[in-house]
Amino acid sequence: MTIIFDLDGTLLNTIDDLGYACNYALEHTGYPTHRIEDYPRMVGNGINNLIRRALPESEQTEENILRVRAHFVPYYNTHNCDYTRPYEGIPELLSALKAQGHQLAVASNKYQAATEKIVNHFFPGIFDVILGEREGIERKPNPQIVYDILSRLTANAVLQRSGLIVEDDQKALPSILYLGDSLVDRDTAANANVPFVACSWGFVPRAQLIEAGVTRIIDQPQDLLLDVYIQQSILPQYDAFDGGHKRDHAETVIAESLKLARTNDADETMAFVIAAYHDLGLRFDREHHHIHSGDILMADETLRQWFTHDQLLTMRDAVEDHRASGKNPPRTIYGAIVAEADRQIDPLTVIHRTMAYSQKLYPDGDFDTLYQRSLDHLHEKYAEGGYLHLWLNSERNVQGLAQLRTLIHDEPHLRALCREWFDNQKQN
Question: Of the candidates 135, 178, 214, 321, which lies 20 to 30 Å from 9 by C-alpha distance?
Fold first, then answer.
């Protein structure tokens, strides 16, 4: 697996050296300096943007930025390791990941020379690729730095507008995970279409990350090992399931579960793993998949690195309770969270998933056969009096259910949507 790390605020606490270098440059160009504790809100998007934010508003011209930078860079080149230190737990995390055979890379907006010097000083021989800001290449959140890392690690990768593809089908790209502390990192990962995990120990407060909609946030470096395990060993299992239960479904349930965990004062990490395991039992059968999924979670010895036996029992119960056809309410808040997250009541998505499962049941069925089975299921599950329950009544699901019920009762419109899906499937 390839794991990409941001540098400042993720691997290293660099704020003191950045602040002292910026104050030195400001003082030598006649501008007021700042308290070191004020610098975390100024960093991000490279040295030039740090200098711009540090300058008085009326002085933020490109000429002045370059003039300050001319003093900043020589000073920082000499003093960039004076007070900089790895965050607690980072060396141990990197050693563990390296021992597991993962490829590690750094993607920074710090200029290349300083990035290489600092990383090699604190983590000699650890990283396979180290990239910073380079002339002629857009900085993060442009995803080019991610593509460049992957192209250096994967010789047969070809850059496409939508990301990376592989020319040789026999050698697929490795799975990827991106860890960073800022919204710039979040956007970089999103632009590169790779999974993102935020860390709360960096320069951006946890509350700000949550307010910006970041889903997965870890509070200590060792927690990343769990995310690596889930990304590498658990989520790929969904690739073998039907169209309504692929990996994107599991990822959506994870994201919604994390949001609901925060609003219901539940343990986010438990909710994260419950969501990741909730449909794994589909590899055995659909009817009892919730029971099988709970058994799979409980039997996974790897999870005992992070959870107690009692926590695992609670998580198993939650997985078992997630199924929409369950007649009894979930036994814990965790069951309610994953059940609510699993509903995903987006009308068009529900219709497409229902048609996809009808097609799985009747692979040779014509449109009328698939449509009638789908219509019956939609009435049985989602119409007034249907067996689906919303245990937490999230706004997203309440609104989606109301819209879906309107569609169910507007049969000409519903039929047209199902026909559109059916015709698209035939063309593909």
Answer: 135
User: In this predicted model, what pLDDT tens digit does every residue of 348-359 receive, in sequence order?
Assistant: 989 998 999 899
Angle formed at CA 294 by CA 288 and CA 296, multiple of 5 degrees: 100
pTM: 0.85
Domain that holds residue 29: 13-83
338's tokens: 């994953």
Average pLDDT value for the chain:
92
Give the distance, in angstroms, between the CA of residue 247 and the centroid of all CA atoms in the same chain.
Answer: 13
Domain end, chosen from 30, 49, 83, is at 83
Domain count, the chain: 2
Q: Mind listing the pLDDT tens digit for each residue in 74-107?
A: 999 999 999 999 999 999 999 999 999 999 999 9
Cβ-based burial of 43 (10 A; exposed 0-12, middle 13-18, buried ≥19): buried
Q: Give residue for tokens 């229902």.
A: 354
CA–CA separation, 328 and 342 (whole Å): 16
53 within a domain of the structure (yes/no): yes
| Amino acid letter for position 347 | P
User: What is the 3-class SS of the chain, one letter each residue?
Assistant: CEEEECCECCCEECHHHHHHHHHHHHHHCCCCCCCHHHHHHCCCCCHHHHHHHHCCHHHCCHHHHHHHHHHHHHHHHHHCCCCCEECCCHHHHHHHHHHCCCEEEEEEEEEHHHHHHHHHHHCCCCCCEEEEECCCCCCCCCCHHHHHHHHHHCCCEEEECCEEEECCCCCCCCCEEEEECCHHHHHHHHHHCCCEEEECCCCCCHHHHHHCCCCCEECCHHHHHHHHHHHHHHHHHHHHCCHHHCHHHHHHHHHHHHHHHHHCCCCHHHHHHHHHHCCHHHHCCCCCHHHHHHHHHHHCHHHHHCCCHHHHHHHHHHHHCCCCCCCCCCCCHHHHHHHHHHHCCCHHHHHHHHHHHHHHHCCCCCHHHHHHHHHHHHHHHHCCCCCCCCCCCCHHHHHHHHHHHHHHCCHHHHHHHHHHHHHHHHHC
Q: For position 71, which CATH number holds? A: 1.10.150.240
pLDDT at res. 170? 33
